[in-house]
Amino acid sequence: MKTRSMFRLSLLPLAALWLTASAASAAPTAATRSCHLPGAVDALRCVSIDVPLDHAKPGGEKLKLHVTIAPAHRAGTRGDPLFVLAGGPGEAGSDVVGVLSTAFSRVRATRDIVFIDQRGTGRSGKLDCKNKPEHEHMTEDQLEAELFACIGATKASWGAYTTEAAARDTELVRQALGYGAVNVFGGSYGTRLGQVYARLYPSSVRSLILDGVAAPDQVIPAAAKDGQAALDKMFAQCEKDAGCRKAFPQLRAEYDGLVARLEAGPIKLSLPDPRTAQPITPTMTSARFLGTVHNILYSPADARRLPFLIHNAAQGRWQPFIARQNLAGDFGMQGSIAMLLHFAVVCAEDVPRMTPELLAQDTGKLAKSLAEQMPRICKAMNVPAVAYKTPTPIQAPALLLSGALDPVTPPHRAETAAKFMPRAQHLVAENVGHGVSQLGCAPRLLRTFLDKPQDKLDASCLKEIPPPTFQLGSAGPQP
Fold first, then answer.
1. Of the residues 45, 64, 116, 211, which has the fewest C-beta atoms closer than 10 A?
2. H/E element, 368
């Protein structure tokens, strides 16, 4: 599952292994140069830092970590930067520098913004398989066979790519750049990494901002129940909206009919390619249909198109749905998620806790096919399991942000995480999905919190973020 929101959470990450352990013996050196990256208009500083592949062997094999620094606009005003931990797992900090002009527009006035490419992502030795245009025409079995071939051909020490290893890298970055205590922003999977870092190095964290919060007990592939809850909210909102209710009076029945039809077997389609207009005969499967629906639910603006897409598919007009499916995995898209890193983390930290009892409780159809596939992928990767440990308290002031319509990290996940954060405040945006920080007054709230993290925020302005309008026809959403 992919999302094009600020920080991707393809399969939500969790649990952590934090050792009582010791800091590195000496700060690593940082090689810095001026650079320009896609998504940012001004010059940035790109830094290369050598970190141990295995933190238990600091003198052993090294891995080059890429870090991007956006210097504060007002030089010398603050000494506590904001470290940004991206989502996935598998998204790189250099993939999301575009948020400098949105979520961090206020923060950057007085603070450096530091984006870290987690080991195995982006410019830090990306672990991925080659994405080919023909993949969208392959069967699930063919795609799985290609994935297994890629896994077998990749010579990586999968056990070195854990969340804890990334947290230890983050501390070495702080030391190499010469910062004191830092503020940490985690988006989606980055919230899991941020919590692990704060527990490993409490004196290094001035404050935490977690957007789309992963709870410590959450198991990524068990995502069907939260996804179904978000889908049910979308159906209920359509029923309450006069225009949507009139345009799609049988929406739930149409959706259920499509699900049942696809569960009975794939549907062979014949339609013009949405990209080229050339005739194509794609196959729609249950996994592809449900995966696309789940992906769409990340963004409320996108979710408000879903009734139109479902209704047209139910009438046999699949082209709009296929076009949206292609968008979710566009082969021209830059900064795609590092899927092998993603699987390495999930196979080590989540799948070992994916018990039959947990899956039985995870009611709903969305994300179920991925949960069924993950054990096969993990067997092929043979990643050493990481033991789950009971979370310890995080004493740093924390701001937790949730979207009420989020299909993967809804508010109850943040509430669970907050039980271990005695100085946390949790804000919920009612008309928002996965990712709050870029919307409405949220950028201002981030700056206010960072300036005085001990103070309670007035977050009433989040109520002013309006719900998007529904798309009722081919012309797009209503004005």
1. 64
2. helix 368-381
- Cβ-contact 35, 43 below 8 angstroms: yes
Structure tokens at 263: 């569960």
pLDDT tens by residue, 13-56:
322 222 223 333 467 878 889 999 998 989 999 999 999 999 99
Q: Determine the Cα–Cα distance for residues 428 and 108; give it in Å rounded to an integer.
A: 24
How far is C-alpha 311 from the geometric centre of its chain's CA atoms? 29
Which residue did the predictor score with more confidence, 6 or 77? 77
Residue at 70: amino acid letter: A
- Least confident piece of the model among 28-32, 74-78, 263-267, 301-305: 74-78
What is the C-alpha separation between 173 and 193, in angstroms, rounded? 14
| Cα first-last separation, the chain | 30
β 113-116/82-85 pair status:
parallel
Looking only at the bridges linking them, the beta strands covering 398-403 and 424-429 are parallel
User: Cα–Cα distance between 224 and 229 in angstroms, integer?
Assistant: 9
Is the pLDDT assigned to residue 476 strictly greater than 50? Answer: yes
DSSP lists the bridge partners of residue 114 as: 69, 83
The CA distance from 275 to 220, in Å, is 33
Quick: pLDDT tens for 424-452. Answer: 999 999 999 999 999 999 999 999 999 99
CA separation for the pair 6, 296 (Å, rounded): 14
